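Below is our example:

___
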Amino acid sequence: MKLKNLVSKLDVLEVKGDLERDICGVQIDSRQVGEGHLFIAVRGTVADGHNYIGKALEQGAAAVLCETIPEETAENITYVRVENTEQVVGQVATTFYGDPTSKMKLVGVTGTNGKTTIATVLYEMFRYMGHKAGLLSTVCNYIDGEAIPTEHTTPDPITLNALLARMVEAGCEYAFMEVSSHSIVQNRIGGLTFAGGLFTNITRDHLDYHKTFENYIKAKKLFFDNLPKEAFAITNADDKNGMVMVQNTKAQVKTYSVQSPADFKAKIIECHFEGMYLNIKGKEVGVQFIGKFNVSNLLAVYGAAVMLGKDEQEVLVALSAMKPVNGRFEALRSPSGYTAIVDYAHTPDALENVLNAIHGVLDGKGEVITVCGAGGNRDKGKRPLMAREAVKQSDRVIITSDNPRFEEPQDIINDMLAGLDEEQMKKVIAIVDRRQAIKTACMMAKSGDVILIAGKGHEDYQDVKGVKHHFDDKEEVRACF
């Protein structure tokens, strides 16, 4: 593609060199640059791309998009200056990859909890209905049936557009993606056209990045503010910030709720560890999911499918065939009669939701043992809150390691224990080794009890001092069985 076409939609401040040159790739990582590529120098949160312009030129870059043109410029290289490179990466990537979201229907899911379940179930449902579809999620990306490993909830704009272009090439009519708050603020989704957006809920998370809860809310809201008027915006009316999210959107607003009147409404008729019977808009349906929070997730799925033009009855039939997502409230039954539940819950709110769901099924007929920790180098303020939430709804709690990253596991555990008083501490033991913690919980459990192992869900590793060691909660539980 000609460089002039690639930057035609940008507010260009200065050009040094030839805009007629051909560009055969776009990169923001100098290590990925090849012959004839455009290197975009972005001032990131960790490193400034302007410091790597020289490296990009060594790798064969033909042009540089930057905020400051270097004092010494190289011959036969074109330099294009804009005010903010981070804001235009998405637009450049979209243009380079042929605007993939104009050729398919893209639906984004944002919120603190539930994103993975909603996006994944929508992807599975539309494939079940006979459509080719793509998925961009925390667990894995999919181009129809092909799995592509994932590093972040929302990839960088270039990786994102490259994946979407491959989806179009594979014949995908729909794509469903988790939209993280980081990606909204960092313009990773800039240039994409969304057919719809879904809001799940918002509770304390990522304050290590956003600093205040208000900033976190603003980041999520920005996604809905930018939706086009042809799109739909479906929000959770049960969340106190649900209507705040859509107050400035141009999109068509719809609501879902388990508590109050809404466009898409459901109630639980019956619940057990194998699933639930629900009433959705006056029709009964059996689903293989558990818990009130999952009723909300399934309502969001139902609403999105209907807004995408699907018949309501067909959607209910498909819902009954859907299975829970890997590491999201996965129930494993032990030979000795207790149940272990593995879940990704890593915020106080998510922990509360999962424990509520367990008590909803147990109905006082068994004890709850919770194994949980907190991630290192992340929001420290939620640690004592998580310990308190676990103690409040459990008979015994084992505080252990999650992904300590570059912190000492014992320090993280101490931060959690600091939230508990003397009485609450009577229920708690701390075991740094996660394997030992899971074993101990299994040894404590009696027939009819439930063990909740929270925090890691689908992850098959522990991140310690920058190294990912193999560790899978489900494998550990099965070994105990």
